[in-house]
Amino acid sequence: MLGPEQVPGSLEATAGTLRRDLLLAYRRRGDIINPLVFALIVVTLFPLGIGPGERLLAEIAPGLVWVVALLACLLSTDSIFRDDYLDGSLQQMLLSPQPGYFLVQAKVVVHWLVSGLPVTLMAPLLGLMLSMPGGGYLPLLVSLLFGTISLSMIGAIGAGLTVGLKRGGVLVALIVLPLYIPVMIFGSGAVVAGCEGRPYSGQLAVLVALTVLASVLAPLAITGALRINMDD
Amino acid sequence: MTCERDHRLLFEDLSFTLSAGRVLQVAGANGSGKTTLLRFLAGISNAYSGDILWRGDPIHKVSAHYRSQFLYLAHAPGVSLSLTALENLRWYFSLNQHIDSQALYHGLREVGLEGYEDVPGFRLSAGQQRRIALARLVISRAPLWILDEPFTAIDRGGVTELEHLLCRHARDGGAIVLTTHHALKLDMAFDRVELEEGQC
Q1: Is the CB of residue B199 less than 8 Å from the CB of residue B9?
Q2: What integer pLDDT is reported at residue B200 of this predicted model?
Q3: Domain B1-69+146-200, what fold?
Q4: Which of residues 2-61 of B touch A (CB under 8 A)?
């Protein structure tokens, strides 16, 4: 008898999607390098452009590292759903009996693993290149660790809205940059406070709260955006 | 099983019923709205007026249940070329149906991809890539199949096999709605809906 077989639970479906996207990321592991090289180039150029004065560099280092990390994450945001949209996988995903929420969340988590996380891990090196004061490294790592999750979640909303467009790159930036700003303000604020030896737990707490909020709410918006684009 | 629709855009006053065990071919010239009609049936687009009923309920009201009842094969079939045939199927069924890996191998063997299970999609020919998607038909137990040009890029032997597969599904009590430009040869009677041009 054909018919309503038992449909896999959301957990199984999410795990399946997670595994698939990790495999895809592994197959295209060259793409992980792009944001890292971008960040390295920008940070290398800065001392050449404004002079190698240690005090000036140390002063702008916290903000600069955060801006560079943010732009590096933005670089790959545009393509989160692009391939899946073109080959029809996204359509199959949304037509499956599974709730889109967790599947989309899994996709964004994988995107973070190959963009935000590597940039976070490289950030101390960027700080070193700009002779950032020693107190700033811990808040830099923690703020980027949480901050880049928010950036991926927020960025995916823009990517979902523009996935049907041939060239959505600039549009994604215009949509998500305003939403990135609060994340960046609290993130770099924590690092500045750390550099100056002031307490920074307040900024980090706000940042973590923003991250939780983004991780819970953004998948709703992303799923909605993708469904709109499926019906074109 | 009832599927009714009334709709005025590309086509007007279109109405049909698809019962279990039946195959329905949607025919018409290029641009006559065949794909659009299938997209409506799959619930992808709702730019129509009228109703599409699944067992008496409008599909948008029972969408979560309805989505577990059909298999939709589109022009872009949802096969990632960076993944192997096996990985593609495994992901598809992790969303749609409990199966064991034995069933996956069986499905790939049935569509002539034995020995290609672990070859990345981009190394396969267009027809073989298409066959990865067709392997879903072998494995799936969804009662309704919505197939948009399933014969694209398939060789002559494959066409016959696919026609057998369609018959088998209908005999098992499934329902199929498909579009094709190929002269469909089935061992059983099937219905046709003709979409005419210029009914705007």
Answers
A1: no
A2: 41
A3: Rossmann fold (3.40.50)
A4: 42-47
